[in-house]
Amino acid sequence: MDFLTLPERTSGNRTYGLTSVIDFGTPIGELKNILSDYGYLIDIAKIGIGSAYVTRNIEEKIELYKQYQIKPYCGGTLFEKCFYQNKIPEYLTYLRNLGIEWIEISNGTLDIPLQERLQLIRQIKQDFHVIAEVGSKDTNKEIPISEWKEEINLLFHAGCAYVITEGRDSGTSGIYDKSGSINSNLIQELLKDLDSKKIIFEAPTPMQQMYFINEVGTNVNLGNVKLQDVLVLETQRYGLRSETFYLEEDGCKLL
Questions:
Q1: This model's pTM is above 0.90
Q2: Is the Cβ–Cβ distance between 64 and 31 less than 8 Å?
Q3: 82 in helix, strand or coil?
Q4: Average pLDDT over residues 245-252
């Protein structure tokens, strides 16, 4: 029975308002239980770091996600490992064999020149939906705001479906400082000139998630969400938590 006035939430096969979870080796039995209850709240599942490569039942896990219309893909670290060892053709074959249609192109660990990443995106965008990541996992590396904007624009122009802003699973790098505090100046500048519907902000903690919900709106794209936190996140999106209680009635500055 619906009797509350709540922010309007995107639904179905969403193109924005995405919840992207991170899976660091969730056992199949546990995953089945989680998805049975909360699969409808999840849009994308990142098989974290390079864990897909050493998961024996990875085929079963991929199929399980797809049963719930969740888009699975492998973390950028696996891509970077393949790039480092000159195994990108083998990696693409590996993804095709698994039935994975999404790929992350990142440079969080390796300093892969932007032009090389752009060229690769142009080559594979016909076969895969590309998600690119911007920002470094190195907490001591500062990237000027102008470079963030320029790189994101070039990645979109090359054919990326979405761009992720680096935050790590710990929320302590990229758009955050070592303590987990958000670089709000950077976020404000990105929101001024870029289409936030196509940016996935990595926000692993409830505090970080609530910042983006209040700043961008109910239907902000959030990544690196823990599987056990998806219901709490949806509650936050609907203004049913104190910190998001006073969301605008339309629920989303994106609309």
A1: yes
A2: yes
A3: helix
A4: 65
The distance of Cα 234 from the centroid of its chain, to the nearest Å, equals 16
Cβ neighbours of 6 (radius 10 Å) = 14
In Å, how far are 14, 101, 201 from 157, measured between CA atoms?
22, 20, 19
Q: What is the number of other CB atoms lying within 10 angstroms of the CB of residue 237?
A: 28
**Is residue 187 within 8 Å of 175, Cβ to Cβ?**
yes
Query: Over the stretch 198-222, which tens digit does the pLDDT of each residue have?
Result: 999 999 999 999 999 999 999 999 9
Backbone angles phi, psi at 168, to 5 degrees: 60, 170
Beta carbons of 49 and 78 less than 8 angstroms apart: yes
What CA–CA distance (Å, rounded) separates 193 from 189? 7
State the Cα–Cα distance between residues 13 and 116, nearest whole angstrom: 32
Indicate the domain borders of the chain.
Answer: 19-244
* Superfamily of chain region 19-244: Aldolase class I (3.20.20.70)
CA distance 27 to 67: 17
Cα Rg of the chain, angstroms: 18
Are the CB atoms for 247 and 255 separated by under 8 Å? Answer: no
Mean pLDDT of the residues in the chain: 92
